[in-house]
Amino acid sequence: MKNFLFTLLATGFLIQTGFAQNFDKAKLDEYFNVLETNNKFMGSAAISQNGKIIYTKQIGFSDIENKVKPNDNTKYRIGSISKTFTTVLVFKAIEANKLKLTDKLNQYFPEVPNANEITISNLLNHRSGIHNFTDDVEYSKWDTKKTSEKELLATIIKGGSDFKPDAKASYSNSNYVLLTWILQKIYKKDYALLLNEQIVQPLHLKNTYFGKPTNIKDNESFSYSLQNGNWVKHTETDMSIPLGAGAIVSTPSDLTLFSEALFNGKLVSDQNLELIKILKDGFGMGLFQVPFNEKKGYGHTGGIDDFTSAFAHFDEQNVTIALTSNGSVFNNNNISITLASAVYNQPYEMPSFKTISVTTEELDKYLGVYASKDIPIKITFTKNNNTLIAQATGQPSTELVATDKDKFSFELAGAIMEFNPAEKIMNLKQGGQQFVFTKE
After folding, report:
1. Out of 115, 125, 181, 396, which could bridge 105 as a Cys pair, Cβ 3.0 to 4.6 Å?
2. pLDDT tens across 55-69, in order?
3. Terminus-to-terminus CA distance in the chain, angstroms?
4. Is the pTM higher than 0.70?
């Protein structure tokens, strides 16, 4: 549902080919154990090939207060990965002749600004221009309250339009909330029932359903944020709000099975699958492209409360990786890269959490505004006592951790910044890429 990561650039997985049928599971276990030992990540992961689960791992606690550990069947809120499920339901409605991509929104919600110009296709690939209600400053004040369709629709209408329909793409949860209601109108059934009848039951998914208030007795997980070294339970979004944009609960194993079914023609026709995968301004329909060396994969990420999630499918050897977390101060993209590197027999390093102390005077040589010829952002470095602060263009500021001489990191974004004060440059490393910034 939300943009939960500070990121300096858009990155994907950078993975080499070469599948290892019997990859080093012990090394991958060790990788997750390092994260757990250093209190960096809680959650679950899975890898599948040809619809068969070949690796699972769970670390941390699903309920810290009662010391409940997760297992293979522990369920997590998956946030915006729900959009991929909703996309499948929309295309199933299309294949049942109940809906068309060219249908206009005014057939269902004429009150929404520009409804006579917005198509189902525009909603699916975020080209409607409808304002994203979760971006509103006030959203965090009511996201835990049960909200009716009438109330939420009024909020979406009030938010108005950010741009002319189909002029560009901009991520908006409002699109998929509207799609949820459209599905319910044409089928005269609740979204939860449609999800169960059309996806969950046919695929025999054991742990996937429309969410409700978390019940630890049902092997569901709470989410947590790390504050002053301690995990603190997050409040829960009421699922009457995210609906098909972010209300589904699942497990990594179920996500890999869903992914395998989708990309192998078990949910929608091959022709419609290709339509779903077409990118316009970087957006598919409920999917994003995931770089895979010279090949390409597809997937989605999610974030709701303090839950985060990701899945990606690669046609090469029919592999899917999936990740769910209920607490993280580490970059999920790096974990996903590690999962893929392991299964494709590529080298990866154990994470290191070494830190060093720096004085406020030592930070002075790094301060200033840095720009790059490679990407259109500037990064401003300031300090707060003996902590270096970075702020990229259009993004909030964040504290950096000193890991070595002239070297700082922001783990949640998987970003490493190495300074050369004498030459007034800074090298940014993130997602397998490197960019040189020069001090202005």
Report:
1. 115
2. 999 999 999 999 999
3. 37
4. yes
